[in-house]
Amino acid sequence: MNEKDEEVRCSLRGRFQKEFALKRGKLFAVDIVAVGDQVLYEMNKDGSGVIEKILPRRNYISRKAPKIKGASTRGERLEQIVAANIDNLVIVSSCQLPKLNNRLIDRLIVIGESSHIKPIIVINKTDLDTSEDFKTLVQLYQGIGYEVFATSIITKNGLEELRETMKNRINLMWGQSGVGKSSLLNEIYTSLNFKIGTISDSTSKGKHTTVTSVLRKVDVGTFIIDTPGIREIDPYGVRKEDLGHYFVEFKPFQDNCRFNTCTHDHEPGCAIIEAVEKELIDKLRYQSYLNMLATVEDDMNF
Ligand SMILES: Nc1nc2c(ncn2[C@@H]2O[C@H](COP(=O)(O)OP(=O)(O)O)[C@@H](O)[C@H]2O)c(=O)[nH]1
Ligand SMILES: [Mg+2]
Ligand SMILES: [Zn+2]
After folding, report:
1. Which end of the chain offers a freer environment for a tag, N or C, measured as fewer CB atoms within 10 Å?
2. Which CATH class, in words, describes the domain spanning 10-80?
3. Which residue has the least CA distance to atom 28 on ligand 1?
4. Which of 196, 201, 227 has most ligand 1 atoms within 8 Å of CB, for mutation?
5. Which residues are near ligand 3, the ion (C-beta closer than 5 Å)?
6. Quick count: other Cβ atoms within 10 Å of Cβ 290?
């Protein structure tokens, strides 16, 4: 999209591809240009463009790229940039269908925190939770400083507030299939017409067609990126010793651990474990931390 909001179809100049792919000695897997990138391009006579330069990214989200058939990567998982230059990572979950999954929310928060993108938490389909169990998580996340929106496209609760937070921002929507990302966007921005999945689509795996993420302008200064094709959420490049930094409520305690290399797992004199015991840090969050730490040890460590 150019400054006049016109779409210009661009290709990437061949000689740049290699250069970008090997930037900083790191090999990028695919998609050298990511959704949200700002680029300089030259116009062809036929109205199409050729990208000359990708401007520096103020932030980006990446994940471990799917393995490429036949590529010689020495078993290493490459980095794939999902989107760039984002203001809000809108983490969408639902009370039911699929049911609320705090571990997944915590993983996505780590992705946001480690990429310097503000996580916003949305708990959708509150109409399906008559006992209002979701309120425990609302309190938990608000208590550690996050903005939380409890929404429903049936009762319309929370929609106006969410719209206000997304206003004048570039918002990346992320969450499991079926939680209602497209439905919420269609409700909030009536100009949109995203395809809504049926419940059976979202519960039966393997039926998904991979669709590329697109940036859409929904209002003056307001953009959204829906990520329909993305299911895997392993963050790329999060190191074991840094993981605790992305659990924001650990901050007041972590300098008090006996060892400065403390992973807050088993070490004696760990101030985080002590804070969990004193209920100053929520157990659910600590469990998510341990759960992620195990993944980091397995294959995120490099
Ligand atoms: N009861 C209820 N159903 C919802 C709500 N939001 C979405 N849905 C339903 O959940 C299903 C999946 O929605 P969709 O927007 O396609 O989810 P996405 O995969 O995250 O984009 C559809 O059947 C929607 O009608 C809600 O707030 N309450
Ligand atoms: Mg969708
Ligand atoms: Zn510790």
Report:
1. C
2. mainly beta
3. 125
4. 196
5. 257, 262, 264, 270, 272
6. 13
Per the CATH hierarchy, to which homologous superfamily does domain 87-226 belong? P-loop containing nucleotide triphosphate hydrolases (3.40.50.300)
> 39 C-alpha vs ligand 2 centroid, how far in Å?
27
d(CA 68, CA 138): 39
CA atoms of 61 and 186, how far apart (whole Å): 24
Give the atom of ligand 1 at the shortest distance from the alpha carbon of 195.
Answer: 16
- What is the CA(265)–ligand 3 centre distance, in A? 7
CA quadruple 111, 113, 115, 118: dihedral positive or negative? positive
Segments making up each domain of the chain, as ranges = 10-80, 87-226, 243-300
CATH number of this structure's domain 243-300: 1.10.40.50
**How far does the centroid of ligand 3 lie from the alpha carbon of residue 121, in Å?**
27
- Ligand 1 atom 8: residue of nearest CA: 180
Q: Are 181 and 162 in contact (CB under 8 A)?
A: no
- How far apart are alpha carbons 60 and 76 in whole angstroms? 21
How confident is the prediction along the chain (302 residues), in pLDDT tens digits per residue?
A: 888 888 888 887 765 655 555 555 555 545 578 889 999 999 999 989 988 888 999 999 887 766 655 555 555 667 778 899 999 999 999 999 999 999 999 999 999 999 999 999 999 999 999 999 999 999 999 999 999 999 999 999 999 999 999 999 999 999 998 999 999 999 999 888 888 876 544 444 444 444 567 889 999 999 999 876 566 666 777 888 899 999 999 999 999 999 998 999 999 999 999 999 999 999 999 999 999 999 875 544 33
The verdict on pTM exceeding 0.90 is no
